[in-house]
Every structure is written in C-alpha cells, then in structure tokens.
Write a structure and sequence with these properties.
With 83 residues, the chain is mostly helical. The protein is 77% helix and 0% strand.
C-alpha cells in the first residue's frame, strides 16, 4: 500500500476512489489496533503501550491527509468533467 502513497496522484477518478478505499481500510486497522492496545493496558501491572499508540495515531493522521488529497483531486477532476 505504501507504494502509491509516494507516487503522484492518478488522473482517473476510479483509481483515486480505489486508493481512498485502501487507505480507509488501513486507517480502520490503525484505529482497531489502538483500541486493542488501550484495552490491554493495565495500570496495576504497569503494562502500557504509549509509543505504539502514539505511532499509530500519527499514521492514522497521515493516512487522513492522503485521503483528503485524493478527495480534492476527485473533486477537481469532476469539475473538469473527467471520469
């Protein structure tokens, strides 16, 4: 998945929508993992995952930015009448 995050954005709406779906799925995996890690934390036993949770939050936010770029591109292409 990381490959297309580094490449230029496609010029076809269908390709952009496919990428958005993939990114949203990865974003959901991040959210689920964050929830799991937070549920597994135990104050009394000293079990914490701050670095992992922070890294996942950063990744989730980065993915949201990539989604927004693609949505803007889709809107621009639709304004120009592209498909």
């Amino acid at each position: 998945m990381e490959n297309f995050l580094l490449n230029p954005l496609p010029e076809k709406i269908s390709e952009l929508e496919e990428q958005i779906a993939l990114i949203e799925a990865e974003q959901k995996r991040c959210k689920d993992t964050i929830r799991d890690l937070m549920a597994r934390e135990d104050l009394e036993k000293g079990i914490f995952f701050p670095a992992e949770i922070h890294e996942l939050h950063q990744r989730k936010n980065m993915l949201e930015t990539h989604i927004q770029y693609r949505r803007v591109r889709v809107n621009r292409l639709r304004l120009r009448g592209a498909r």
